[in-house]
Specification:
This protein is α+β, with helices and mostly antiparallel strands and 741 residues long. It has 22 helices and 23 strands.
């Protein structure tokens, strides 16, 4: 009999009563749920749920029972006469928005582990109230979400970068995708989905600017709002007549041909492209009229816009999750403007715009004037010693001339290694430690030139004056250095790299150095007598705001991953263990933030990229005010010096010396496998001025541990006694021969 009862129950469940299709849609929207969220919960496709709400299809067992259960609970929360945000109206941004009742416990858990895995979100977020009919929004259809976390120092993940600015209420960007039935949807930050009526790419640009309400407020008073970013999926590319992938020739050119039909469509609609053409990061604009800008940025992941070295598999994510990931980056850093390197450079300009509005004159009119503290709107010439090979300022040099250290400034990151001593060979482990955000820390508080250089003969060195100095530092002896005021230390100088050269060799005579390098020679207790210099009297701490924003973005994202600032050493190591697996997409944001730092600094000395360039001719990047090799040199110089200072402090206190250094990673022989086995902590406190475990920029984390036998083995295998083990310490895999030369 029980089997018969079960059969009857199943039969009844297969016909579970459902509300009318329009009511199903109302209930979902009342709770701020997207079609994707409902589809994920019921383990069906988004189009399936859309069909249920349109009345085209009806759910079948077993999904029908679960769907009916959800709608029944929502009907209890939102009776038919409750106010609901109607589609086609804008959400209110007033702080008095009423709070929706807390969802069921199971749904609360789902909210905490959102599909994209980017952030924990409040389960009882405010529900958007209806907007009066007198304030209709444009023809876009909205599917709002209730998940809008509160603001904090660095924007929480999944927070629209538009903030409370009504112009950008839908966030900084949208991922445009096309359903199987041809419906075009724009997935925005925060779970919002918009119907897109545009049938062509020019129409999509028009819709973005007129109805999309996408963009980001300016980061600085005199600056400009960020242009909206539209990310096109493969389906969207196909829908709008663009190739899904680029051919080999197009990849090499970085663009599709100028005669492509889509470019012709844009031209007929009076839209223009920048000189880089229609590539993975295309900018489509019309000339500005007054202060009004008309520009849309496109990102095409299937054209390799999102470099896998920095964005991992972000290009493969579903549209809603990609919007969430890019939106987190936009809220904490800025709306992407291209590669992470391009965005890093654009962030500098956004925080220090080149011009500002003047005070009104007698007639009340304002004019554009130089913004103090910025690099200005015009490029400045670099000093000859700062110019890379092929620069126009070096056009008179013989074609194959090799410049000596006395002719060219070479400030680069460390790539140094040495053979292990007998005592180090008896220790079982090689432990690598890595400086967090090393180049960001090097930029923090650094005074750099803002204007052009002035040539000075026989100058008196001034550590506060940024510039390039020709000076002989070969007399600096690392076996005896000053480690504090009036306190000298005796060291084994043969086991230390020189702080003055990237390869760690001792300089042999006069050479060009950036100010931080020469200042460190003085700090070590030695006199310096420059022969000549190119100095910049117009200077300032241009990178401070840039550092602060990237630091806050990094720390907030690491905190979301469970790694908080000021953790005790052991807890920090435990928190770092496997942190990327806790929320893989947040880990991608961390990677992109770090790449923004390194890429932005590198972009300050961008080299020619094809363009038919020949040595001695100018290349495109030289026309930018942000082409500043002197600033890049100063940051790298200070970063290398910061590392050397910690190494010296550590050696003076412990008698331990690094066996290899690669940029921001140092490797030590150790009796144990953990950094705590050789870092000198006393009562939980680190050596002052030495290495300290922690997540903040400038502090260190564990990079990896291998055995001493491994290190000696790979060096013997490749017949390279000075193979840089720091390059392979992370996982022990040596992928390419490196002789250390």
């Amino acid at each position: 009999m029980s089997e018969l009862f079960d059969a009857v129950d199943a039969l009844i469940a297969s016909r579970s009563p459902l509300p009318p299709p329009t009511e199903r849609k109302r209930l979902r929207q009342a709770h701020g749920l997207t079609l994707d969220e409902v589809a994920a919960a019921l383990q069906v496709r988004r189009a399936t749920v859309s069909g249920w709400e349109a009345g085209k299809t009806e759910p079948r067992p077993p999904e029908r029972d679960a769907y009916a259960r959800m709608l029944k609970q929502l009907a209890q929360l939102y009776p038919a006469n409750a106010p609901v945000l109607p589609e086609g109206t804008a959400a209110s941004k007033t702080p008095s928005a009423p709070a929706a009742p807390a969802p069921p416990a199971a749904e609360s858990a789902q909210a905490r582990t959102s599909p994209a895995g980017l952030a924990a979100e409040p389960a009882n977020s405010a529900r958007r109230p209806a907007v009066p009919a007198a304030v209709p929004r444009p023809a876009a259809t909205t599917r709002p979400t209730s998940r809008r976390p509160p603001t904090r120092k660095a924007a929480p993940a999944d927070t629209p970068a538009g903030g409370t600015d009504a112009r950008f209420e839908n966030g900084p960007l949208a991922v445009v995708d096309v359903e199987a039935d041809g419906q075009v949807l724009a997935y925005c930050v925060g779970g919002l989905v918009l119907d897109v009526p545009a049938k062509s790419l020019p129409a999509l640009v028009e819709w973005t600017l007129r109805e999309g309400r996408l963009g980001q407020p300016k980061l600085s008073g005199p600056g400009k709002d960020a242009d909206p970013l539209i990310v096109l999926t493969e389906a969207a590319c196909e829908h709008y007549g663009l190739p899904v992938t680029l051919t080999k020739e197009e990849r090499l050119a970085g663009r599709i041909p100028e005669g492509h039909k889509v470019i012709k469509q844009l031209t007929r609609a009076n839209w223009q492209l920048t000189k880089r053409g229609f590539g993975p990061w295309a900018r489509i604009y019309r000339p500005a009229q007054g202060s009004e800008r008309t520009c849309v940025q496109l990102c095409i992941p299937s054209w390799d816009a999102l470099d896998t070295r920095h964005w991992a598999d972000a290009a493969q994510l579903p549209p809603a999750e990609l919007a969430r990931l890019l939106g987190t980056y936009a809220a904490r850093v800025m709306t992407p403007r291209g590669s992470t390197a391009v965005t890093g450079l654009e962030l500098m300009t956004a925080l220090h715009p080149p011009t500002r509005a003047s005070e009104p004159d007698a007639t009340g009119k304002r004019y554009s004037e130089h913004n103090p503290g910025s690099l200005g709107k015009d490029p400045v010439d670099c000093a000859p010693c700062e110019a890379p090979d092929g620069h126009p300022v070096l056009a008179d040099l013989p074609r194959f001339h090799h410049r000596t250290p006395a002719e060219v400034l070479v400030e680069e990151a460390y790539d140094w290694a040495r053979p292990l001593t007998d005592a180090e060979c008896l220790r079982p482990h090689l432990v690598g430690i890595d400086v967090n955000m090393a180049f960001a820390a090097g930029a923090n508080g650094l005074t750099v030139g803002l204007g052009g250089p002035t040539h000075v003969k026989n100058p008196v060195f001034d550590p506060k004056l940024p510039g390039s100095w020709l000076v002989d530092l070969s007399h600096v002896d690392l076996s005896r250095v000053k480690v504090a005021k009036d306190k000298w230390a005796e060291l084994d100088g043969e086991l230390l790299p020189s702080p003055f050269t990237p390869r760690g060799e001792r300089p042999e005579g006069p050479a060009w150095y950036a100010t931080p390098t020469v200042a460190y020679a003085v700090e070590l207790g030695y006199d310096v007598t420059p022969i000549e210099a190119w100095v910049r009297y117009d200077n300032g701490r241009y990178l401070d705001a840039w550092y602060n924003r990237l630091r806050d973005a990094y720390l907030a994202t690491m905190a979301d991953l469970g790694v908080h600032a000021d953790l005790p050493p052991q807890e920090f190591l435990a928190a770092m263990d496997g942190y990327r697996q806790r929320a893989p997409q947040l880990a991608i944001v961390v990677s992109a933030i770090k790449a923004t730092v390194k890429g932005g600094i590198g972009k300050l000395r961008e080299r020619p990229r094809g363009e038919g360039w020949k040595p001695g001719q100018p290349w495109r990047a030289l026309a930018r005010p942000t082409w500043r090799p002197d600033i890049r040199a100063a940051v790298i110089s200070r970063t290398r010096i910061n590392m050397h200072r910690k190494i010296v402090k550590h050696a003076a206190f412990t008698g331990q010396y690094p066996v290899a250094i690669l940029s921001d990673c140092a490797v030590y022989a150790s009796d144990g496998p953990s950094p705590l086995d050789f870092l000198p902590y006393r009562d939980g406190k680190p050596l002052p001025g030495g290495f300290k475990l922690g997540v903040n920029p400038g502090l260190v984390k564990w990079e990896g541990t291998q055995s001493v036998l491994w290190g000696e083995g790979v060096r013997e295998q490749f017949n390279a006694p000075e193979l840089n083990l720091a390059r392979y310490i992370k996982d022990g895999t040596v992928t390419d021969q490196d002789t250390g030369e």
